[in-house]
């Protein structure tokens, strides 16, 4: 059985050169959770949209989140939803509390730091402009996540050269094989 994956894009959505877009094209059974506010996301609206997408799944999905969507996953986990996921693959978690974080989001700060009640893997870069390496490590530790550093990879997006990103896709497939029935 192929893995069931919901992709979660961050602030401004993931464009045509982003790894999420490439992976969705290669895996038609994977789908992106739609949001109504990509430019000015509201945490409560995004949590509700994610919860509806999870509820619509035939079995617990793996969430493949990028950037702000990593905070979304942590907020969803703290929301008390009765729905379950198989795990979360959290790439380049943005630090919504950092002074360098772009304005326009509502309700995502402070970053939830409770342990996640499902398996998770944080994939981080040593030179991400939206999260310091120390904060990425702190998020992973607080969430009880496994941690993978892929070197100096910027924000691990299309602009940083991570379009198709086959190594990341294999990381996700391995994660799915280990955690999704």
Automatic annotation (TrEMBL):
InterPro entries per record: AB_hydrolase_fold, RBBP9/YdeN
Name of the molecule in the record: Alpha/beta hydrolase
Any GO MF annotation of the entry: hydrolase activity
Record Gene3D superfamilies: alpha/beta hydrolase
Species, as recorded: Janthinobacterium kumbetense
Keywords: Hydrolase
């Amino acid at each position: 059985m192929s893995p069931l994956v919901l992709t979660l894009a961050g602030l401004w959505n993931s464009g045509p050169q982003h790894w999420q877009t490439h992976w969705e094209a290669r895996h038609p059974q994977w789908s992106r959770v739609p949001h109504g506010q990509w430019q000015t996301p509201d945490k409560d609206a995004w949590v509700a949209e994610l919860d509806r997408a999870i509820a619509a799944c035939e079995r617990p999905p793996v969430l493949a989140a990028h950037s702000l969507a990593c905070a979304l996953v942590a907020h969803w986990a703290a929301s008390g939803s009765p729905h379950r996921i198989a795990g979360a693959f959290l790439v380049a978690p943005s630090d919504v509390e950092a002074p360098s974080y772009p304005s326009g989001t509502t309700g995502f700060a402070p970053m939830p730091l409770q342990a996640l009640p499902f398996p998770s893997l944080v994939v981080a870069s040593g030179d991400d402009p939206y999260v310091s390496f120390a904060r990425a490590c702190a998020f992973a530790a607080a969430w009880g996540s496994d941690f993978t550093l892929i070197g100096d990879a910027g924000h691990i997006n299309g602009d940083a050269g991570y379009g198709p990103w086959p190594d990341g896709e294999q990381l996700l497939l391995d994660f799915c094989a280990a955690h999704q029935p």
